[in-house]
Amino acid sequence: MNDLLFHEREYWQQYRYIAGIDEVGRGCLFGDVVAAAVILPHRLVLEGVNDSKKLSEKKREKLYDIIMSKALAVGIGHADAETIDRINIKQATRLAMKQAVQQLSLAPDFLLIDAERIDVEIPQASLIKGDATSQSIAAASIVAKVTRDRLCKGEWDALYPEYGIGTHKGYATKFHREQIQALGPTPMHRKSFMTNLFVEEQTLF
Where is the RNase H type-2 domain (predicted)? Predict the structure, then answer.
């Protein structure tokens, strides 16, 4: 079994509060990229916590509640479509992650980040596939995913019901692309993601 506390244990020797950070929605055509930062107690083992993409929606929801009740602090950050179009998705992701760290009610001494760097004066480590190798990052990936999915199924779907956001969560499904072609993009669609969308589709045939 993968030891998800390997990195935490390494840094706990030197730091007290370690925040795991991850984002969701980087590849979507619609809506915010959402990041979460989670500080968990030392040596707490959360059964079933893993990369949110490997978990069912039901399992994520259950783990979300456990994480929110056990975590010492949780912060959420957002970067909207306008920001993504203006500064690009990579910079917007970093901005959302920075926001998530700033929203923590407890100041972290160290950051474990899923394959990114954040512009803050806090020591940090960027872990490739961090959501599959660190419990703190995996917990953040679950919190970010559930937070964004709830927006997709609730507020955002209610704003633009014709686009099926609650079902595909803003990703480039066939139905989603067809609705954008038929109705045009909404203010929450990422215009910078649209340029190649239909060119690619045409070259498939």
Answer: 16-205
Considering only CA atoms, which of 52, 53, 51, 103 is closest in space to residue 77? Answer: 103
What string of pLDDT tens digits covers the 205 residues of the chain? Answer: 468 999 999 999 999 999 999 999 999 999 999 999 999 999 899 999 987 888 999 999 999 999 999 999 999 999 999 999 999 999 999 999 999 999 999 999 999 999 999 999 999 999 999 989 999 999 999 999 999 999 999 999 999 999 999 999 999 999 999 999 999 999 999 999 987 776 555 544 4
Q: Measured at the alpha carbon of residue 74, what is the angle toward residues 53 and 155, in degrees to the nearest 5? A: 65
Structure tokens at 133: 């190798």
Q: What is the pTM of this model?
A: 0.94
Say if residue 23 carries a ligand binding annotation: yes
